[in-house]
Design a protein that fits this description.
The protein is built from nine helices and 13 strands. With 311 residues, the chain is of the alpha/beta class. It has three domains: 37 residues; 70 residues, Roll (Ubiquitin-like (UB roll)); 130 residues, Cell division protein FtsQ/DivIB (Rossmann fold), CATH 3.40.50. The chain has a ten-stranded mixed beta sheet with strand order 6-5-4-7-8-9-10-11-12-13, with helices on one face. It has a three-stranded mixed beta sheet with strand order 1-3-2. It is elongated, with a radius of gyration of 44 Å. About 4% of the residues have low confidence.
Length: 311
């Protein structure tokens, strides 16, 4: 017997809605829809909180590193966790200061942990060294320490009332503690300035002298006169009278005369350059005349002692 298709379809519909078959979920529940919508907002919020936590930890680390007291416990933990040895120590600006004294003041060396020393205390010890005006010490991760020095470089030796001292460009005394060996030999080449106020005025005249090496090689000392102008004493004892405030021009004239006539090597008593349009050269005093009865050779008589003037 053939079944009626319409009968079967009606029975299926009736069984579906009467509970004979489990109902199928045509759409998700409200809770699932809510969490699906919120998931797009929750993940960015979580990422934002993680980033803010890392940034906060970094700021706190920098804050602690700025203070020796706050950073000391953290440094001790870092040393215990991972030594991170120093592989490079870079020193900038070193001139008169020895490397041995810098290493001692730093308080660490290559192979030691990079967090195993205090940057602030190392800087303070470096500042106490004789020729250093101020210093900076930096850690550059992962294995480098950089030291930058600004030295109080001496430019002259100042003689005042029988005392000798090294001075810098500002005229301030530079300690000569530990001045031995090669450094001591270098200081023998520094110019000598003499007299009251010579220390504070020395930089200008020394700069002018350095521009004329022919003259500098003949100068033994620079003497301050009346705290307003300079005399230069040559190595053979000749005195050169320099004009007030015009030392550079006077040294240029001397260099020209030295090149043309070897003036600075002649046996004269003084050279007066205080007038801009002329030079006055004073000869040594004439020898005493021979007594009666003493024979002299006319060919050996010294030249007259009159002053020589040259434009």
């Amino acid at each position: 017997m053939r079944e009626d298709p319409s009968f079967q379809r009606d029975d299926f519909v009736r069984d579906r809605y009467s509970g004979a078959f489990p109902p199928q979920e045509d759409r998700p529940s409200r809770a699932k829809l809510f969490w699906r919508r919120q998931r797009r907002l929750v993940w960015p919020a979580i990422v934002f909180l993680v980033v803010m936590g890392i940034a906060g930890a970094g700021v706190r680390l920098l804050y602690d590193a700025a203070s020796e007291e706050r950073f000391a416990p953290l440094r001790a933990r870092l040393v215990e966790m991972e030594p991170l040895p120093i592989r490079h120590i870079v020193i900038n600006g070193r001139g008169m200061t020895s490397e041995a004294s810098i290493d001692e003041a730093l308080g660490t060396t290559i192979g030691h942990p990079i967090f195993g020393f205090s940057v602030e205390r190392a800087r303070q010890r470096l500042d106490e060294l004789p020729f250093i005006d101020h210093a900076t010490v930096e850690r550059h991760m992962p294995d480098t320490v950089i030291i930058t020095l600004v030295e109080r470089t001496p430019i002259a030796v100042w003689q005042d009332r029988g005392h000798f001292m090294l001075i810098n460009r500002a005229g301030e005394e530079v300690s000569d503690q530990g001045l031995t060996g090669k450094n001591a030999q270098a200081f023998l080449q520094l110019p000598l300035v003499v007299g009251e106020g010579a220390n504070t005025a020395a930089a200008t005249v020394i700069d002018a002298l350095n521009h004329e090496p022919l003259v500098k090689s003949q100068v033994a000392a620079l003497i301050r006169v009346g705290n307003r102008r300079w005399n230069a004493t040559l190595k053979d004892g000749t005195t050169v009278l320099l004009p007030e405030g015009e030392e550079a021009a006077a040294f240029t004239r001397l260099a020209r005369y030295q090149q043309s006539m070897r003036l600075l090597e002649r046996p004269v008593q003084s050279i007066d350059l205080r007038l801009p349009d002329r030079m006055v050269v004073h000869q040594p005093p004439q020898a005493a005349p021979p007594t009666e009865g003493t024979k002299t050779d006319p060919s050996s008589s010294p030249p007259p002692a009159d002053s020589t003037k040259q434009p």
